[in-house]
Design goal:
By secondary structure, the protein is mainly alpha-helical.
């Protein structure tokens, strides 16, 4: 069992270790892992955002179902909320990616650590 704690690229000072790290970090497997990790973060934050702001998304649907004549105005008034919601979503994804993925060599089980941070050992 590997007891060495994960280290970021920025923590490595030795040139040889940095070279080995970069060779592994830029490998196709690690790139694929980082892509999957990014997708998982998008899904995680997207579902969380939908659960948090579902009334915002239901208002235009309700207006459409009621065949409101002011549907374009309702949608126009909801645009600022959707834009703010999207900005918060992007910021959360970027912060989690920087904290959990960027600069690390991802090992098996990384998906669970990304989806449930703090509940599983590193």
């Amino acid at each position: 069992m590997n007891t060495v704690s994960p280290r970021r690229l920025s923590d490595i000072r030795n040139d040889f270790e940095r070279g080995v790290f970069m060779a592994l970090y830029t490998s196709p497997r690690q790139r694929r892992y980082r892509g999957i990790a990014h997708l998982l973060l998008v899904i995680k934050h997207g579902l969380r955002g939908i659960l948090f702001s579902w009334p915002l998304y239901l208002l235009p649907l309700a207006a459409w179902l009621l065949q409101a004549q002011y549907l374009p105005l309702i949608v126009l008034l909801l645009l600022p909320g959707l834009i703010i919601s999207g900005a918060i979503l992007r910021r959360g994804i970027r912060e989690d990616y920087a904290r959990l993925v960027d600069g690390y060599i991802l090992k098996p089980g990384y998906a669970a650590r990304i989806l449930f941070p703090g509940t599983l050992p590193s």
